[in-house]
Automatic annotation (TrEMBL):
Location of this chain's protein in the cell: Cytoplasm
GO terms assigned for molecular function: phosphorelay response regulator activity; transcription cis-regulatory region binding
Residue range(s) of DNA binding per entry: 138-237
CDD domains assigned to the protein according to its UniProt record, in alphabetical order: REC_OmpR (cd17574), trans_reg_C (cd00383)
Keywords on record: DNA-binding, Phosphoprotein, Transcription, Transcription regulation, Two-component regulatory system
Gene Ontology biological process terms from the UniProt entry: regulation of DNA-templated transcription
Protein source organism: Paenibacillus validus
Protein name: Response regulator
Top-level taxon of the source organism: Bacteria
GO annotations of cellular component type: cytosol; protein-DNA complex
């Protein structure tokens, strides 16, 4: 079986070498880029399974790279940032990144996060392949005004398509398959990202917020995804 391919987009040689060594030691094939143009060239050449993307400072170039790569690929993107509370992280997640890790980081933790994101992506693709073998409508999750097709990666709201990034879609599928069940942020992270959050639930909050904005005509009076204050979230179509 071929090794999984990781693309590192990082302009600091020391960090780039640290990432490369940790991932290579764990059996990954690693490719490097220092800016958006190199990242696009490398991506086209090797089609990586996952991208590790530094977002600054300054953040503009990293965010532009995130948006560009996400525009034509669903490969997981894990952001690397020096600031845990940074608005740059939130913007990166809104642009379609899947996860983030903050400098300084333990290389073993980073490798574990890479494995978790790859594992969840593989499970998601396997489930879609299995559902595709069923009759066309069997895999569709349907509620009043909302239709979710995991095979075609498609969501229709009142008959109109809604564009979701991968993690938004995975969250929606997970919640919609378990209507009425209240999930904590930690439980959602474990189910959709494939590992314990260790307090890193901001990425779940951002993806849920974006999902609700796209899905709910009035986010302050939700129809589908409800926040149970102090507990978590549930899918409960009204």
């Amino acid at each position: 079986m071929a090794n999984r391919k990781i693309l590192i987009v990082e302009d600091e040689p020391e960090i780039r070498n640290l990432l490369n060594n940790a991932l290579t030691d764990d059996g990954f094939d690693v490719y490097e880029a220092t800016d958006m143009q190199e990242a696009i060239t490398q991506f086209d050449a090797v089609e990586p399974d996952l991208i590790l993307l530094d977002i600054g400072p300054p953040a503009t170039a990293g965010l532009d790279t995130c948006a560009e790569l996400r525009s034509y690929s669903n490969a997981p993107i894990v952001l690397i940032s020096s600031r845990s509370g940074s608005s740059d992280i939130i913007q990166g997640l809104e642009l379609g990144a899947d996860d983030y890790i903050v400098k300084p980081f333990d290389p073993e933790v980073l490798v574990a996060r890479v494995h978790a994101n790859l594992r969840r992506t593989a499970i998601f693709r396997r489930d879609r392949k299995w559902e595709a073998s069923a009759p066309a409508k069997d895999g569709v999750i349907a509620y009043a005004g909302l239709e979710i097709d995991p095979v075609r990666f498609q969501v229709l709201l009142d008959g109109k398509p809604i564009a979701l990034v991968t993690k938004e879609f995975q969250l929606l599928v997970h919640l919609a398959r378990n209507p009425g069940t209240v999930y904590t942020l930690e439980e959602l992270y474990a189910s959709v990202w494939g590992m314990e959050s260790h307090g890193n639930t901001r990425t779940v909050i951002v993806h849920l917020s974006n999902l609700r904005k796209k899905l709910e005509p009035l986010p302050t009076r939700p129809t589908y995804i409800h926040n149970i204050r102090g507990v978590g979230y549930k899918f409960d179509p009204k």
